[in-house]
Design the sequence.
């Protein structure tokens, strides 16, 4: 088991420190500290809403850890210039660097010799496999039930929903696998492909490959990326959607998004977004949005319940906040959809 | 001016030899020969329907040329193994190799030393610029009128339509630029970005960059790629569509496509495809399909005219075969749409 320090220097907010919060939630027992000098002395739970008493620090000194993790996911994925000194210190201490940004640290002319000299390691999880190919349009023919967590925006809980669904389905006795498509999901699960770093011609092929490798499972939970209505990332989203050919989608939703993140564009109504996803997914195979996974963390409990009720009424779909109230309604919806589709196909319709 | 030999060995059909046919059509005066031993002795016009008397050959010997062009665009973009010997011969003769496949010849351990030894050159036009970034969602705010040639499938004439529209708009006194997004368009125009070779996160940014660099023009004609309903390439298509944020789209159509190329998937009705493009484009800015550019080469003249009339009736849109009958109806539709949108915006609605 590794001992990690999560680096979020200058960026300790839930939007930018997405990788840190994901690791705190799912591999918290391996996290020794979070590094941001502006927050030193406070705890991860206080600053990021997850991670309990794990401390924020402003130095690597005296912390028992072997790995420094780049804890952010910025638009464009560049390494902040001010972080270089911290990374150099970690390398001089023999630490391993775990990086999910588009900037590859293993190619860095300063870091590579330092790692070699002090026995460290430079790991870029966003470097895609070299042997990817175009899709053969085979995912839609697999027998596993393919569930894709999508969203109306970035950072609305697509990864988290997929991880929670996997756990819940396993608890009910099914075989289920989380298929990571982003840096944080890969760091959490130890597998997957960083789909937004793949050459665009091969995105659908990469998604297909993940499904084909797991076709023996009862369920695969494919982590979504971006949004079909996101002006910066929609192509990634559609390539992934068509490559994994889901039969069921779970729609991630954050009620605070009046504009699309990293843009000034107005957010379309959720009903419209669902229609777009279903239209585009149905190009590949019959596919519906079966539930909404809402992030209600901006609301008190009463307002959260009211929002979920309104979503159910307006959309005619189960709605849940998987972190706050559990994912049971969504699991039920997925199982019902599988039953419905299998009955349809056994009747020849 | 270069003298080119186009290599299409074993693949001299219009679907695979797309790069060769594009160069024969738009840079035919620079083409000395087409290389395919199966067709030697015949002419480009006979075999590929374009290029007139330019001969097919089965050897490089005795042909005055300085450049060997990889004349195909295969699914996946790999270099056929049997071509290696021909490339080695060309390099030993000091020729330049112009390549648009995903396989980069400049990185080839065998070719690079041969090129160095004999003074040749290895040019990979599908290698994207190194400095691409995510989109800033700015294309939609440019004053140039953005026309995007899209399609219901690959290889239905999107590049050709954009090139013909550019020429026709210039003839009518407008400034207009063709923005190449694929290997053949880049070879023809000498500029552009190979969008399907770009890291998926940067596709919209690359398309945006092409528009921003040409924002001073009256019109930009952005070459489309793939299709929104193409299971292999739809992500490329959507990233490009959102990145260039067109106000008008021209829909490429080939009536012979009952299934989508490189797949066994049924082709949806054209009306449905148009609806999907308009729904997805409108996420970014108001945008309509204003005309259909049909490839009627499979039909005799009477059947072609009948098809165009049926398209007009069924879709309520102008329809033309730009190669066979000229692109005037499409140019008129583009100009009308620009007028309509400018009148709408000057009325504040």
Sequence:
């Amino acid at each position: 088991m590794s001992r990690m320090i999560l680096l979020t220097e200058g960026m300790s907010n839930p939007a930018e420190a997405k990788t840190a919060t994901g690791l705190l939630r799912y591999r918290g027992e391996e996290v020794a500290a979070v590094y941001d000098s502006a927050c030193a002395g406070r705890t991860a739970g206080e600053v990021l809403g997850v991670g309990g008493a794990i401390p924020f620090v402003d130095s690597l000194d005296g912390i028992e850890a072997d790995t420094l993790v780049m804890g952010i996911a910025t638009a464009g994925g560049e390494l902040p210039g001010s972080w270089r000194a911290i990374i150099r210190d970690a390398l001089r201490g023999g630490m391993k660097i775990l990086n999910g940004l588009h900037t590859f640290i293993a190619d860095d002319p300063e870091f590579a010799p330092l790692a070699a000299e002090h026995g460290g390691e430079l790991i870029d999880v966003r470097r895609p496999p070299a042997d990817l190919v175009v899709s053969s349009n085979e995912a839609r023919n697999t027998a596993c039930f393919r569930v894709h967590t999508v969203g109306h925006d970035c950072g609305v809980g697509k990864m988290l929903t997929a991880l929670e669904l996997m756990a819940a389905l396993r608890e009910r006795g099914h075989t289920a696998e989380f298929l990571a498509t982003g840096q944080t999901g890969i760091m959490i699960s130890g597998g997957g492909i960083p789909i937004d770093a793949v050459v665009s011609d091969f995105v659908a092929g990469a998604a297909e490959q993940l499904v084909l490798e797991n076709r023996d499972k009862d369920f695969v939970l494919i982590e979504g990326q971006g949004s079909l209505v996101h002006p910066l990332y929609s192509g990634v989203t559609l390539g992934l959607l068509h490559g994994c050919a889901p039969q069921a989608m779970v729609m991630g939703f954050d009620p605070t998004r009046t504009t699309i993140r990293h843009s000034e564009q107005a957010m379309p109504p959720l009903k419209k977004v669902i229609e777009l996803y279903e239209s585009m997914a149905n190009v590949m195979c019959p596919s519906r949005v079966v539930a909404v996974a809402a992030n209600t963390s901006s609301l008190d409990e009463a307002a959260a319940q009211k929002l979920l009720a309104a979503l159910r009424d307006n959309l005619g779909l189960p709605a849940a906040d998987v972190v706050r109230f559990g994912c049971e309604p969504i699991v039920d919806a997925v199982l019902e959809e599988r039953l419905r589709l299998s009955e349809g196909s056994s009747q020849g319709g």
Remarks:
- The two ends of chain B are 50 Å apart (CA to CA).
